[in-house]
Protein 1
Amino acid sequence: MASLTQATQAPNFKRPASVLVVVFTRAGEFLLMQRIRPAHFWQSVTGSLQPGESPRLAAVRELREETGLLGSGQLIDLQQSRLFPIIAAWRARYRANHCFNREHWFALALPGRRLIRLNAEEHSHYQWLGLSQALELASSWTNREAMRWLAGCVTPA
């Protein structure tokens, strides 16, 4: 049996499963946040599932942690997911044999803009943007695809 010291020093790898929560207003503005690392990386709410956590619970948790928004009742499960290669900047967070991540999509529609309480350890700025500006700024192809899907610009997979 491993000692308590060994157990507490074991690496805490992320699960290769995550959520994407696209927050938008009924006027068609999308919330994007700039990550601290990597620099110049803009995204919607995202985060890895914790051990034993469902995608929905992870979406609610990440939404609260990253924005301060409490949206569990209004959170929409888009019944969409995408598999993508884990980018080099984040590869060390995962076990060596995990090269791909499964991202589950959710959305939160708001009547209008809200003040966002950023998690300063993860994000430095946020913006509410129209679809075309949000598509230009979003760093992740899955984030862009989810925004297009929500805007009705693409057919669901």
Note: The chain has a mean pLDDT of 89.
Protein 2
Amino acid sequence: MSMEVSLLIAGISLAFALYSGISNLKRNSKADTQKDTAAMTMVLVKLENITQGITEIKSELSVMRKDFQELHDKVIINEQSLKSAWRMIDTIENKIAGNNE
């Protein structure tokens, strides 16, 4: 009879140990899943912020290219105007030099 009681106690202990182990595994699995989800969410948010930053940089670069092209065009116009002004100055100098001789 004492053998049966000890076997009964051993069986109950084994069942409780198995139940505790399985419930701990499930709990740990849920906690790991929640941590992984939080980490992935943080990574996604940071990637979204990086994407927005890159979009803003591209937009600013486009505006800068446009401004640079406008400045380039103005420099060309100024160079042509300067060239024309030097021609006029040379013409005037030649006329003045011709009148003085």
Note: Residues 4 and 12 are 12 Å apart (CA to CA).
Protein 3
Amino acid sequence: MNILKAVLEHEVYPALGCTEPIAVAYAASLAASVNPGPLVALKIVVDPAVYKNGFAVNVPGTGGERGNLIAGVLGALLGTPQLKMEILKGVTQAHVEEAHAHMAGGVASITYDSARKSLFIDVVLTTAEHTSRAIIEGSHTNVTLVELDGVAVKRGERPVEVGEKPYRETLGSMGIKDFVDMVEELDAKDTAFIREGIFMNLEVARVGQTLHKVGYYVADLREKGFLVNDVFSSSKILTASAADARMAGLSYPVMASGGSGNQGIVAILVPYNVGKYFSIPEETIIKSIALSHLVNSYVKCFTGDLSPLCGCAIASGVGAAVALVYQQRGANMEQMTLAVNNVIADLGGMLCDGAKGGCALKVASSTDTAILSAYMAINGHGITQQEGFVGKTAEETIQYLGRIGKLGMAGADDTMLAIMLSKEQLCPN
């Protein structure tokens, strides 16, 4: 099994909008594709993390509407599952108005199943003639069941326990040195695909810089002399602006990493911008981004796809830091270990409270820490196993972090969801 190709195929892909509501739309579209006709009922059940992550984020094509439910209804109305994570490309105002009518009339509903501990989306769609169902499990595009009137039309493999994806069992058994060896063998097809992701995410960042949001204010601080015009500020402006555009629901796709658009922004744009700043050869920058993708996905073998911990901090931030060490020092495992330990020691406790505009702040923090952590590591300084939950190897530190996220913070998502739901009841608008 070629793990690099598996990661690029399954975890690095264009996504239009936040991946959780888009995955809900994809599942609803799958159910609609085998059961066309006017909606009589649409019932959606998701795991708590999907519910949380899609709770407050803007949905593309809706003019600022938020949440999983409208995304699911739009997916059902569109019925074009072949678009996968770009499912909402075809949304029109007429679709939005029809979705509102279904939601106001009680036709569509969404709940979460607190017993579900990994990514889970179950859509049951009823028309006058039939009832269909679609289930996605383990990852945003892993379809495990599509059925019509109780008869399976498609049945996929259920995800395995380790990381919820079949190839992740192998990925999780490897180490960062293995990933460095893989990127040295990067072929022309994968190189072109990674380059496509750079251009895609740069375009989103360009659009995001026109918004008066986090990226704009970082740039404003630089213009006013509060920040130096250097690689730190330029990288933070770039990544925060891209996250601003994505979280605002603008209709521009982002190349995701580890199934997350914001993680794709950090995993791709930080190595790209820092590499360009230091005049690193393009071939090396491309390989470093491939390494960033691999490390990002490796971290999630232990933390899970939708952790109570912020993936931009503890997954893509780690991947970006390793990529920066690779650019400057090649396969220096001692320095890569220091870089991993530095990022996790700094941002290891950053909470994920769902996708929303504030994620751009976390993206900026991850960017800053990734660069600083790599710089310190390259100069021989880093957090060691004598401190806190840091291990003696990068892999051990990542595994410890996974234990903290899955065991130590097992109730965090439920607690955050309770807070978010209570706020909605107090301030429904």
Note: The mean pLDDT is 92.
